[in-house]
Amino acid sequence: MIFNKDTAEKTAELLLQINAIKLNPENPFTWASGWKSPIYCDNRLILSFPSIRNYVRDEFAKNIEKQFGKPDVIAGVATGAIGVGILVAESLGLPFVYVRPEPKKHGRQNQVEGFLQKGQNVVVVEDLISTGKSSLMAVEALRSEGANIKGMAAIFTYGFGVAEENFKEANLDLFTLSNYENLLDLAVQKQYITEDQQSTLLEWNESPSTWGQE
């Protein structure tokens, strides 16, 4: 679910402007999972554009507090959401922790890095939601440390049905600055893509695991 329509449209426009999101239906990308995709999203590029990272920071801070109430801690999911998570925590004047994909193999063998007390209210910041699997693994790691997870806030989601099911099963509310639907509407409006290309992109979104396979 998006925080609000205006933010969704503005965020989508900014992501397209800096090529954080690339749309190429005729020459699809290949994801690490092996899926063929007409879209590629790298929200880490946001950090290289001060005015845009500040916009994302401010929208996150404002909407997180409005939607979830002010938490005790902001948690970022490594590695893509560490940078923006720190910006949000700084804006709200809150502690920050981050969550590794798995515990370290040496030293203290931490998966959650930073100071976190049991019972603290945490909002998790993520850069991108695809299936939601890795994001929810981070949530489980925080819960195992005794954190009370108020919800997750992400920059962008592809809006896959499997992600909705995964978040519902995990009993976790997800809100995003923008999403696939708003992105495509804006991309057509601003002539980044044609209506025919939009149709292709919508077809992919309905069945991403099998799209483009002969």
UniProtKB/TrEMBL annotation:
Segments forming domain Phosphoribosyltransferase: 59-165
Binding-site residues, 5-phospho-alpha-D-ribose 1-diphosphate: R100, K104, H106, E126, D127, L128, I129, S130, T131, G132, K133, S134
Q: What class of enzyme is it?
A: transferase
Residue positions binding orotate: S130
Q: Which UniProt keywords apply?
A: Glycosyltransferase, Magnesium, Pyrimidine biosynthesis, Transferase
Q: What does this protein do?
A: Catalyzes the transfer of a ribosyl phosphate group from 5-phosphoribose 1-diphosphate to orotate, leading to the formation of orotidine monophosphate (OMP).
In terms of HAMAP family, this protein maps to: PyrE
Q: Which family does it belong to?
A: Belongs to the purine/pyrimidine phosphoribosyltransferase family. PyrE subfamily.
> In its UniProt entry, what is this protein called?
Orotate phosphoribosyltransferase
